[in-house]
Amino acid sequence: MKRPLFTTALFALALAACSPSPESPTADAAPTADAATHPEDAAGGDESAEAGGGEDADKPRGFDINRIPLSDAALGEFPYFAPPPGYHTTDRLSSTTAVGQFPFWVGDLYVGVEGRIYQANIRVDEGKTFSALEVEKAVADTIAAAGGVEVANMVIPRAKSLEVLTRAFTSDYANGLCWPSEPVRTYVVHRTDRDIWVHACTYGGIGAAWVIAETAAPTMTAEVVGAQAIARGLQSEGRVRVPFAFQSGSATLPAGSEAQVAHIATVLAQDPGLRLQVQAYPGLVGSPDRARDLAQRRAQVVVAALVAAGVEAGRLRDTDPHAAAVVPASADAADLAEPATPSTDATAARGIELVRLEPAIAPPESGTP
């Protein structure tokens, strides 16, 4: 019977050693079998590292995933990322666990992640020389394009790695780990419906490895901003932020948005001369063009909902940069008439901003000098 990967006390901790299993038993530069099978010995530890952690070990402090910007990038199928051109993995060197646990290093502690987990050892194609720098840059660029953020890039301190090195752990993740003397890079793609964690490393100038974990994120909801608060913000600042819990990558009006739309419509009904620009913001998407497109579609869907609620369409503008010119209510609002750019603020990426526009100037009557 296989031992559990972590004890409850250690679930928020773990990782840092072992080499990937070689593609061939005779791989020249592969680590010794003893180091691969018993990394606690290679690191100078013993199985006592399996115990301990304290009653608060599963409550890591100092890391809040909600501070990471939300991603709106388009994703494919799990595991979402593939080795860069010129590199490969194989079925023998990779595996997927439907429900597993893996500890990710975030700079000063481990965060335990539970969910679907993929691991792979990455080898260079025949006839090509392995380049750690090339692999590291390609991995970083690929994850950044998916809206991911690097949260750690360092050699994990030996004292920390000794807390979690066990035979069971390194056996279970032999293909996804590198030598403890090599830097570990941890990335997080934070989304509304899931979080994607990546542990990436290279080893000995001959290969690389990564572990990709996907865990469900709590369902996002948006606090409703009342009509009075919206009116006050527009009156005092010329703009007001209104949350809408758009799902990552989606421009579909979130379920339950009817109350928020009704409050905005009420403000417009109470002030017949009010005109608004609806400005939406994307999260991290990796492409400025896609950011503008997503922001525009989110603004348009809110405008459409307001029109359906009885607001005259001529009193609303969306973020289309090619729409008729609009005159902002103040110099501070001028930037909101420009094409949208990705927001690094999680709240901004989940909502819209209403900007008060100057009343439309009626064209002169025919025959007027």
UniProtKB/TrEMBL annotation:
It comes from Marilutibacter spongiae. This is OmpA family protein. PROSITE patterns: OMPA_2, PROKAR_LIPOPROTEIN. Pfam families: OmpA. The keyword Ubl conjugation does not apply. Residues 43-55 have a biased composition (Acidic residues). InterPro entries: OmpA-like, OmpA-like_sf. One of its GO terms (cellular component) is membrane. Keywords: Membrane, Signal. Transmembrane segments: none annotated. Residues 233-360 form the OmpA-like domain. Residues 19-63 are annotated as: Disordered. SUPFAM superfamilies: OmpA-like (SSF103088).
